[in-house]
Amino acid sequence: MISCCGNGGCEGAAGTLIIIGGGSAAFSAATRAVELGAGKVTVINDGLPTGGTCVNVGCVPSKTLIRAAESLYRANHNPFSGIKTSGIVTDFSAIIEEKRQLVAELRQAKYINVIGDLPQVQLVKGQAKLLDGHSVEIGTMRLTADHILIATGATAAIPEIPGLAEAGYLTNESAFELETLPESLIVLGGRYIALECAQMFARLGSRVTVLQRSNHILPTESEDITNALTGYLTEEGLEILTGAAVEQVHRGKQGVVVRAKINDEKREFTAAQILVATGRKPNTRNIGLERAGVLLDEHGFIEVSPTLQTTLPGIWAAGDVLGQNMFVYTAAYEGGLAAENALTKADRLADYTALPWVVFTDPQVAGIGMDERQARAAGRDAEVATLPLSYVPRAIAARDSRGLIKLIRDKKTDLLLGARILAPEGSELLMELAMAIKFGITVRQIRESFHVYLTLSEGVKLAAITFGKDVAQLSCCAT
Questions:
Q1: Dihedrals φ, ψ of 165, to 5°?
Q2: How far is CA 77 from the centre of its chain?
Q3: How is the chain split into domains, by residue range?
């Protein structure tokens, strides 16, 4: 068992694990360790409540609030003739309270209760500091184990803008706790969190301005996707300005004032609140990593081998603290993999070959594998087929044909290399393509598979057909 020895030394028995962190990577590691027969697992958590970012201040609160905003938007933008609908926000604080209740329920059911049912797992509240490859301290208490997993996650990275700290700002953590809907909002950033929050607040009634430093939003994606999404968001009333260099922030009589240079033109923006969503930074400070010999990269994220072992034997790392693929499902995958490699010496390599991702705007941006630029840069003979949703019967019938489906294949092998989707509920189309990439299913096999008529997933088949035919010449259900 893991012993608690005050300031004295102690030794850990075989098959024991200490986990620093309390989010998805940590809990996945704990449950996997128990499955593998670990004698004792201690989870040490500080900062966010049990469950970490996803359930408390990330996925769960953001997606339920996005759905609330979407319900309001749909009520006020019904596309069908002869039907009149409308909606208003009568009590913003009630929306936030319902969100809090959902977070509390899922935290209890999916984290606290899970640990409670595992007698081998002990949950300790406190700030852990790494001493060496097998021991940590919490105050005056020292714990030792055969292996230690660092799963401390990440938090909002705040840019060094003069006056920003003094003016006050929101992050994803505080924005989801507002009791009053801000009349206006400036969003710094143009990636996942920034765009999801910007559209959500705009649909709930805030006047939103997005200031993005790069030349287009979602700067790692191709401009056909980002330009189309920018257009849809602008149509909803969001002001999106790219090439924005924020120079100074202060709080005036009317709210927060942001001075920025937009493509060399100096401009000033004022809003009730400012939301900072300019990236994430690792929670690696003050836990003794560098002192113990764990190597960090230039941004403070932990460097690991393909088996998720750090530069210090006995220490492993998983989740957002790695700075790559910062999704809850990859954190859970990495936590379980690290525990398995630590306790069994399996030396399994982390594999992200078929990793799907989604930006939960409306329409959603969903992706898997390489886009056309990445494929060609990798030396692949890449061919692209792009299908506007205006050719998908389900989208036509729903009177919402915003977006496109884009497939990238290797011309020589017919294997799918990647896909990008811009569509309402586009995320629901992604797993068919993820399975195709993971198991080597060809574009021809996708094209020859049955897809139910008048489903959005039929668009995947139509996109596959587009490699060899003009779908405008097809009749309904034709191949």
A1: -60, -40
A2: 28
A3: 16-155+281-344, 164-278, 356-472
- Would you say residue 147 has pLDDT above 70? yes
**How far is the C-alpha of 469 from the C-alpha of 479, rounded, in Å?**
9
Strand locations in 72-191, DSSP E?
121-125, 129-132, 135-138, 141-144, 147-150, 154-156, 184-188
Average pLDDT over residues 33-49: 95
Q: Identify whether the C-beta of residue 25 lies closer than 8 Å to the C-beta of residue 158.
A: no
Quick check: 316 and 335 in contact, CB under 8 A? Answer: no
- Distance, CA of 25 to CA of 33 (rounded, Å): 12
Torsional sign, CA 265, 270, 271, 272: positive
pLDDT of residue 479: 59
**Residue length of the chain:** 479
Tokens at 254, concatenated: 């009317």
Looking at the chain, the whole-number percentage of residues with pLDDT higher than 70 is: 96
Residue 363's CB: how many other CB atoms inside 10 A? Answer: 21
Cα distance between the two ends of the chain: 63
Between CA 345 and CA 314 the distance in angstroms is: 11
Q: Please say if the pLDDT value at position 423 is more than 70.
A: yes
pLDDT band at 478 (very low <50, low <70, confident <90, very high): low
Contacts of 256 by beta carbon, 8 Å cutoff, 6+ apart: 167, 168, 169, 186, 249, 250, 270, 271, 272, 273, 274
Contact 382, 408 (CB under 8 A): yes
Amino acid at 255: G
- pTM of full prediction above 0.85: yes
**Is 300 exposed, middle or buried (CB count within 10 Å of its CB: 0-12, 13-18, 19+)?**
middle
The per-residue pLDDT for range 432-453, each reduced to its tens digit, is: 999 999 999 999 999 999 999 9
φ/ψ bin of 37: left (φ > 0), alpha (ψ from -120 to 50), beta (otherwise): left
Give the CATH class of 356-472: alpha beta
Q: Which CATH architecture has domain 164-278?
A: 3-Layer(bba) Sandwich (3.50)
CA distance 23 to 459: 36
CATH label, 16-155+281-344, candidates 3.50.50.60, 3.40.190.10, 3.30.565.10, 3.90.78.10: 3.50.50.60
Task: Say if residues 204 and 286 touch (Cβ distance below 8 Å).
Answer: no
Q: Do the two domains 16-155+281-344 and 356-472 of this chain adopt the same fold?
A: no
| Max intra-chain CA distance, the chain | 79
> Which residues, 6+ apart, have CB-to-CB distance to 140 below 8 Å?
6, 7
What average pLDDT is seen over the chain? 94
* CA 465 from centroid of its chain's CA atoms: 31
